[in-house]
């Protein structure tokens, strides 16, 4: 197999930069195409790649389809990018695929909305995403100053908006990024990319369950089918092609607002469906997500939270829990990654689900709602969901559409992902399988609202140079 | 007493709720059925040894379908050592999860495995050996004494199972609601956990019900022990209370569930293994007349060390499991550099056949002869490599003490005729009847 | 009751395409409430679609129906309800006799004469009539609601047998649902096609083979029998050689093409938006696709043979509700048109991406065997030995499939809220009411609720 060219791949593919507690995501519009290309060419030398360590701070850059056009890319190469990336996230069709309806409709987004909407960075002007990471606030301030003046100083780019995730908590253990706003530990389950060396650090079941082909996340390498995912290209010398996609990948960004108060209310209201003991509330919340607050998977410890299993990710469903009596069939993590339960034969099932993995790099934004809060403080908070995949349709959109939002997932009838879904006005349904028969929790409300989103392309370093016209 | 309080109190945990009262009434051991051919073969050590020789000789790495059978000593050690290639999670994790929650025997090499095994180990104290010896010797003497008055002893039901259950109560700290229930739980759970590879539905159901009941019981027990420890004086010193005490130190802190998972895993592995091993050892000694007499002499002389040598040599002739099972995690080669080198593809199952391996003349001089003074390192009775038996320090003392108590009886012999044959229930000896003329009154010398 | 398929192909009058497609689209946009065609009022119609397909002599209208009972009975019924709308539609088609004085007979004849049926017709749950599917879903809801009543809370702590008994009693007590306790078995032939085959055909076939082989050994008929066997073997070898030759010719054509498939597809993909008008609007989707059969008799015969094999496997498979491992198809059909094209029409659960993904992941061989005999300007991926590679080239196969699609102008589903799995689960709930049939007994039955 071809060796993964780490030095050409942007570092976000390899790491969520857990040591970088501060992050800023900056949106720019191209003001001067020539200047912007020059800026991009210089930036290529500074971007964090997979070969060097993380250093004092990290910088990555991604572009939208409109951004590539604004840089001056010709229509022909522009049409070689993946269709969802070309079309953008706001078409009526993608709205249906992603379930962006009602309060999540793109017209209402804070950024990335269709041209003419109230978005601060509407789709047509959202061109460049600069991702900055630094270990602390001080370092972030100086990094921001420096990068901002490079980008806008000579009028190459116009700054539209900055997303500011919360600083990560001081201590990070076992690769965990901490806790999302509903209170669950997050970031334990990730695919492991073959060829990154990360697969050697894992042992046993975990390695066998989560290692996926390089080409699932980096263009230019064999994917899960052993084929190359179509990659964008530029016309090259002698009517040949320059592979623009090699070592690049697609990046999905979605700002997901969370109604924490609503979630807690609901858990309190419906906890009775899973018992009346002291753990009932925590257990019901865990049933919705599929892991306990600590992160311990229900498939492993169905009755009670067990912090020793907080980072456990070596489990499957087929053998211990085929009917969802531990982890409900419709729980968030079981939908988002049904592991070995999608086909009669376990090993094959695992292979099939691993064709639909995403690499998550989200961070939370907005202050946490105090535990003691008795009513909603109306402060916006949520998750800046970032994920990567080489094939947007087969990976990110598939997970969202065919697994999370699909009422028929796993033989169910009429319910969606209890965390992400947009239930009907009369309230959503969530089935908790159990013995002797299932319990149906009714009256689920909408907890997660999309506030913005876009598809980006995260080029390799050589790809950046080609775009800058410097190759 | 803890036991009775548990029995009377309403169910507290989610588990118990999930198993409604009506169903608990059906909680019995799986019904007895006539054993299948494969089961009969697995229980017949003589036949297995007979098959082992041509196997080692002509097909040391035999591959049939998705199963690979490894029978030479060196290769067996190799397989058990290479825990990254030949893994255990696929074999044991799911059943461990079902009956208990994650436990070291279902984990591959990982931080969690090392941590939990180390914590368990740290709760074993050097002085435990003496404590175990005193307790087992007394229990065994008492049990043998009681049974011997009838002139006939069932090694399994009258001696080994109750003795092991009592050690679990006194040393591991899990008495169970009562001894009979505890014995039944242990058997059903051990069966489901390690031996129900065919996924027999009846076994599974019984296993799950027993698991739920044990789970609820342990929750209360742990709470009661913790309360006792908190009050100070009342604290007992058992493996369980040590695990609870160890929670005070972050380095050895298991979560509350972790304490339950680990004590349950240890306890489930303790009773029926011991009873099976004891029955097998006695059965083999009865088949080797010379050895039997020498062992009896040692027992009467109070030389348990020598009895131990005889016991474990006897066990070699019929070990607990004829083979240990591993999953091939990645394409691997077995017996690299030999003429019988073999490529095994990922996804296959490997049987590391310890019984044939313990008759491999490359590792054992004159393997077919009963010799009590063999090098113990070559002994695979208790597994090998990272999953080797945690209870070994107990077994070294307990099994020989149980055997010794029997050997001290005058006129020890197998019950005549059919009655003397060992009877299995599934994979467990259910009965092994021996006749005695009467026990030797004192424990030590005549 | 048996399910049947009709595929009515009629040439569209020159210049009428736009008007016809607008008419059908306008009906299709509100198909559930539509009164003109009134499809939702037809109690024997599972799925129907209209689309305009390219043809040798110009575009043709394709009307697909998946129905209970015979096409003629269904079409008569359709004309009873909506003769004038049918008239509106078909007045755009060549050779159509306009409705005169309410005499529907000529219209019916027109439609029936142009029905080319299906070469291979797949039905997920043969024998399940629309009425049965709807009633059984009603039953499922009824039971779930019953179990969810606060008064039944005590059942949660009860034995599975008790719960089952309580449900059965409640059903018996409610006259509106009591029907569910009566047996309503599927026809024997539907349930046991394999048994029939094994009992009848297999011995006959085995006997024949035995006779020929025995004859070849000794006796007077030795020579002709040997000759026969040798001919069969030679024919098989010849067919394989011919197949490889055809595939190598395809590879050669692929190497000498002037524009590569990615460019072709990229250029075409601008058309995608016309499909997305409706795609994924509901939980189910419809796929209309058409491809040219590769030139020559060989490909034609191969395709026919493959379709026949698929038909046999699908009918005889002991596992229902799946086609080559894909469990999301309600009704699907392959139809070979007189002008050498292969139409594929499918009514399935979930998204296109999921559906095509299943093709690649689960049924690549079977589908390769079909579509490798066809082409369009993207071209079917490189194939060897009829079933190897082919659809496994995920990206190109999906591009080929997309390129072959035609917009479905009007599509009707009688139960958009029920998946293939839901229907069989409902059926098992119904059957289990009388006696749990699952291997796990009552517990397994309760799990379905
Ligand atoms: C605010 C919204 C969300 C919340 C609160 C949330 C929460 C969580 C939590 C607590 C976990 C368990 C941690 C882990 O296994 O690493 C998880 C896992 C996961 N989530 Fe989400 N999530 C959200 C949105 C999404 C979205 C939009 C997607 C993609 C479509 C997604 C896909 C996944 C996946 C793939 C996993 C890993 C599952 C596994 O491998 O077992 N999540 N999420
Ligand atoms: C006090 C009684 C016993 C206890 C507490 C006990 C406990 C354990 C534990 C915890 C393990 C798993 C170790 C790991 O995975 O790291 C183990 C493995 C093992 N034990 Fe024991 N055991 C006992 C008695 C016995 C007896 C009597 C025998 C046999 C004569 C035995 C044979 C084995 C074997 C062969 C393994 C290895 C299994 C494998 O590698 O697949 N054990 N034991």
Account of the protein in words:
The complex is a heterotrimer of chains A (471), B (446) and C (449). With 471 residues, chain A is of the alpha+beta class. Chain A has two domains: 6-250 and 458-467, no CATH class; 253-452, no CATH class. Chain A contains 14 helices and 17 strands. In chain A, a hairpin with a 5-residue loop joins strand 9 (233-235) and strand 10. Mean pLDDT of chain A is 91; it is low at 171-176. Chain B has 446 residues and is α+β, with helices and mostly antiparallel strands. Chain B has one domain: Cytochrome P450 (Cytochrome p450, Orthogonal Bundle). Chain B contains 19 helices and twelve strands. Chain B has helices at residues 2-8, 14-18, 21-24, 37-43, 45-58, 73-81, 89-99, 111-122, 128-148, 155-172, 179-195, 201-230, 239-246, 256-268, 271-287, 289-300, 304-317, 354-357, 392-407, and strands at 61-64, 67-70, 86-87, 152-154, 324-328, 332-334, 342-344, 349-352, 413-414, 423-425, 428-431, 433-435. In chain B, the strands form four sheets. Chain B has a five-stranded mixed beta sheet with strand order 1-2-8-5-3. In chain B, strand 10 and strand 11 form a beta hairpin. In chain B, helix 12 crosses helix 13 and helix 15 (271-287) crosses helix 17 (304-317). The longest helix of chain B has 30 residues, at 201-230. Chain B is globular and about 65 Å long. Chain B starts with a helix and ends in an 11-residue tail after the last strand. Residues 1-33 of chain B have low confidence and may be disordered. Chain C is an alpha+beta fold. Chain C has two domains: 3-124 and 261-413; 130-183 and 419-447, no CATH class. Helices cover 49% and strands 16% of the residues of chain C. Chain C has 16 helices and eleven strands. Chain C has helices at residues 17-29, 71-90, 105-113, 130-148, 160-173, 188-191, 193-217, 222-255, 261-268, 272-276, 297-316, 352-362, 364-371, 394-403, 420-434, 441-447, and strands at 3-11, 45-53, 60-68, 120-123, 284-293, 329-336, 341-349, 374-375, 383-384, 388-389, 408-413. In chain C, the strands form three sheets. Chain C has a five-stranded antiparallel beta sheet with strand order 4-6-7-5-8. Chain C has a four-stranded antiparallel beta sheet with strand order 1-3-2-11, with helices on one face. In chain C, strand 2 and strand 3 (60-68) form a beta hairpin. In chain C, helix 2 packs across helix 3 and helix 4 (130-148) crosses helix 15 (420-434). Chain C is globular and about 75 Å long. In chain C, 38% of the residues are buried. The mean pLDDT of chain C is 89. Chains in contact: A-B, A-C, B-C. The structure holds protoporphyrin IX containing FE (2 copies). Residues 104-105, 117, 266, 269-270, 273-274, 277, 320-321, 324, 381-383, 387-391, 394-395 of chain B line the site of one protoporphyrin IX containing FE (HEM).
């Amino acid at each position: 197999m071809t060796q993964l060219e780490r030095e050409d791949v942007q570092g976000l593919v390899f790491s969520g930069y857990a040591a970088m507690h501060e992050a800023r995501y900056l949106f720019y519009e191209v003001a001067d195409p020539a200047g912007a290309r020059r800026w991009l060419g210089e930036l290529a030398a500074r971007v964090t790649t997979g070969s060097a360590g993380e250093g004092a701070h990290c910088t990555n850059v991604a572009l939208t389809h409109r951004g590539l056009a604004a840089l001056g890319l010709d229509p022909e190469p522009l049409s070689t990018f993946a269709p969802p990336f070309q079309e953008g996230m706001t078409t009526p069709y993608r709205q249906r695929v992603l379930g962006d309806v009602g309060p999540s409709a793109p017209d209402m987004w804070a950024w990335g909305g269709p041209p003419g909407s109230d978005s601060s960075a509407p789709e047509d002007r959202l061109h460049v995403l600069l991702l900055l990471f630094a270990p602390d606030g001080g370092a972030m301030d100086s990094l921001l100053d420096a990068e901002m003046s490079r980008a806008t100083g000579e009028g190459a780019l116009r700054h539209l908006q900055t997303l500011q995730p919360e600083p990560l908590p001081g201590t990070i253990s076992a690769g965990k990024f901490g806790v999302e706003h509903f209170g669950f530990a997050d970031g334990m389950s990730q695919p492991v990319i073959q060829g990154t060396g990360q697969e050697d650090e894992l042992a046993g079941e975990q390695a066998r369950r989560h290692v996926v082909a390089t080409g699932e996340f980096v263009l230019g390498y064999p994917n899960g089918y052993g084929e190359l995912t179509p990659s964008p290209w530029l016309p090259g010398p002698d009517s040949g092609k320059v592979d623009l996609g090699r070592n690049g990948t697609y990046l999905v960004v979605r700002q997901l607002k969370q109604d924490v108060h609503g979630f807690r209310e609901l858990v309190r209201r419906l906890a009775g469906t899973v018992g009346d003991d002291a753990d009932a509330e925590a257990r019901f919340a865990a049933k919705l997500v599929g892991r306990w607050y600590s992160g311990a998977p229900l498939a492993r410890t169905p009755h009670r939270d067990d912090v020793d299993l907080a980072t456990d990710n070596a489990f499957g469903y087929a053998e211990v829990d085929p009917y969802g009596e531990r982890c409900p069939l419709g729980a968030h993590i079981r939908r988002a990654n049904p592991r070995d339960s999608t086909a009669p034969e376990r090993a094959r099932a695992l292979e099939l689900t691993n064709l639909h993995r995403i690499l998550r790099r989200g961070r939370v934004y907005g202050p946490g709602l105090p535990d003691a809060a008795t009513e909603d403080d109306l402060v916006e908070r949520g998750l800046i969901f970032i994920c990567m995949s080489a094939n947007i349709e087969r990976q990110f959109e598939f997970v969202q559409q065919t697994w999370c939002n699909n009422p028929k997932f796993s033989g169910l009838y009429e319910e969606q992902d209890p965390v992400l879904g947009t239930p009907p006005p009369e309230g959503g349904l969530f089935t908790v399988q159990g013995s002797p028969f299932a319990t149906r929790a009714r009256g689920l409300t909408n907890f997660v609202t999309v506030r913005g989103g876009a598809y980006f392309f995260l080029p390799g370093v050589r790809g950046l140079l080609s775009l800058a016209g410097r190759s | 007493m803890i036991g009775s309080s548990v029995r009377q109190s309403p169910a507290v945990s989610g588990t118990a709720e999930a198993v409604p009262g009506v169903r608990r009434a059906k909680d019995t051991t799986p019904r007895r059925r006539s054993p299948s051919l494969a089961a009969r073969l697995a229980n017949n050590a003589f036949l297995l040894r007979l098959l082992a020789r041509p196997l080692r000789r002509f097909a040391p790495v035999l591959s049939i379908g998705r199963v690979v059978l490894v029978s030479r000593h060196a290769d067996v050690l190799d397989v058990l050592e290479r825990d990254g290639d030949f893994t255990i999670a696929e074999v044991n994790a799911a059943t461990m999860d079902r009956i208990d929650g994650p436990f070291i025997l279902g984990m591959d090499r990982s931080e969690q495995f090392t941590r939990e095994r180390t914590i368990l180990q740290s709760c074993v104290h050097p002085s435990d050996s003496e404590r175990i010896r005193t307790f087992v010797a007394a229990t065994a003497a008492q049990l043998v004494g009681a049974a011997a008055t009838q002139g006939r002893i069932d090694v399994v039901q009258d001696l080994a199972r109750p003795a092991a259950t009592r050690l679990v109560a006194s040393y591991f700290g899990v008495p169970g609601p009562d001894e009979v229930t505890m014995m039944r739980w242990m058997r059903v759970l051990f069966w489901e956990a390690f031996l129900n590879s065919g996924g027999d539905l009846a076994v599974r159901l019984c296993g799950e019900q027993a698991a739920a009941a044990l789970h609820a019981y342990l929750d209360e027990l742990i709470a009661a022990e913790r309360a006792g420890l908190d009050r100070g004086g009342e604290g007992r010193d058992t493996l369980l209370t040590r695990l609870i005490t160890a929670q005070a130190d972050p380095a050895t802190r298991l979560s509350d569930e972790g304490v339950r998972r680990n004590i349950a895993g240890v306890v489930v592995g303790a009773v029926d293994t011991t009873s099976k091993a004891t029955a097998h050892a006695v059965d083999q000694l009865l088949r080797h007349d010379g050895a039997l007499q020498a062992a009896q002499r040692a027992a009467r002389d109070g030389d348990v060390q020598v009895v131990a040598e005889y016991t474990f040599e006897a066990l070699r002739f019929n070990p607990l499991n004829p083979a240990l099972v591993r999953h091939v995690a990645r394409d691997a080669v077995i017996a690299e550099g030999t003429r019988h080198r073999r490529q095994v593809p990922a996804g296959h199952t490997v049987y590391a056949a310890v019984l044939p391996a313990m008759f491999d003349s490359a590792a054992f001089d004159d393997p077919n002869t009963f010799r009590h003074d063999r090098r113990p390192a070559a002994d695979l009775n208790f597994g090998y490599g990272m999953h080797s038996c945690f209870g070994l320090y107990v077994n070294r003392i307990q099994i020989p003490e149980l055997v010794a108590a029997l050997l001290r009886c005058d006129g020890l012999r197998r019950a005549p005729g059919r009655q003397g044959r060992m009877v299995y229930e599934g994979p467990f000896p259910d009965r092994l009847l021996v006749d005695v003329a009467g026990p030797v009154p004192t424990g030590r010398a005549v | 009751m048996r399910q049947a398929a009709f595929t009515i192909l009629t040439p569209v009058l020159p210049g009428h395409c736009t008007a016809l497609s607008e008419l059908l689209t306008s009906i299709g946009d509100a198909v559930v409430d539509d009164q003109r065609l009134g499809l939702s009022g037809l109690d024997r119609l599972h799925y129907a679609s209209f689309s305009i397909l390219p043809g040798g002599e110009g575009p043709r209208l394709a009307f697909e129906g998946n129905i209970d009972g015979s096409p003629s009975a269904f079409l008569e019924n359709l004309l009873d309800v909506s003769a004038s709308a049918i008239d509106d539609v078909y007045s755009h088609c060549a050779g159509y006799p306009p409705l005169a004085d309410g005499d529907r007979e000529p219209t019916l004849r027109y439609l029936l004469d142009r029905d080319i049926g299906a070469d291979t017709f797949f039905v997920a749950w043969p024998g399940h009539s629309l009425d049965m599917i709807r009633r059984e879903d009603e039953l499922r809801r009824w039971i779930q609601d019953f179990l969810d009543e606060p008064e039944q809370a005590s059942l949660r702590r009860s034995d599975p047998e008790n719960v089952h008994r309580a449900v059965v009693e409640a059903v018996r007590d409610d006259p509106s649902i009591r029907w569910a306790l009566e047996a309503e078995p599927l026809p024997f032939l539907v349930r046991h096609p394999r048994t029939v085959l094994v009992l009848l055909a297999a011995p006959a076939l085995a006997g024949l083979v035995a006779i020929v082989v025995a004859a070849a050994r000794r006796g007077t008929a030795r020579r002709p029998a040997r000759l026969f066997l040798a001919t069969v073997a030679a024919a098989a070898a010849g067919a394989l050689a011919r197949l490889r030759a055809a595939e190598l010719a395809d590879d050669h054509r692929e190497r000498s093409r002037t524009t590569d498939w990615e460019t072709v597809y990229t250029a075409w993909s601008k058309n995608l938006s016309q499909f997305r008008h409706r795609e994924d609007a509901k939980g189910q989707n419809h796929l209309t696709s058409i491809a040219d059969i590769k030139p020559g008799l060989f490909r034609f015969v191969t395709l026919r043979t493959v379709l026949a094999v698929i038909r046999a496997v699908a009918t005889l498979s002991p596992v229902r509700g799946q086609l080559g491992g894909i469990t999301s198809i309600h009704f699907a059909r392959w139809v070979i048109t007189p002008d050498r094209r292969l139409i594929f029409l499918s009514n399935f659960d979930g998204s296109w991406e999921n559906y095509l993904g299943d093709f690649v992941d689960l049924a690549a061989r079977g589908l390769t065997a079909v579509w490798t005999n066809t082409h369009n300007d993207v071209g079917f991926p490189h194939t060897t030995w009829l079933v190897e590679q082919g659809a496994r080239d995920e990206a190109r196969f999906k591009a080929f499939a997309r390129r072959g699609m035609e917009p479905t102008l009007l599509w009707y589903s009688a139960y958009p809220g029920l998946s293939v799995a839901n229907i069989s689960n409902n059926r098992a709930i119904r059957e289990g009411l009388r006696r749990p049939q699952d291997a796990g007994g009552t517990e397994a039955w309760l799990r379905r609720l």
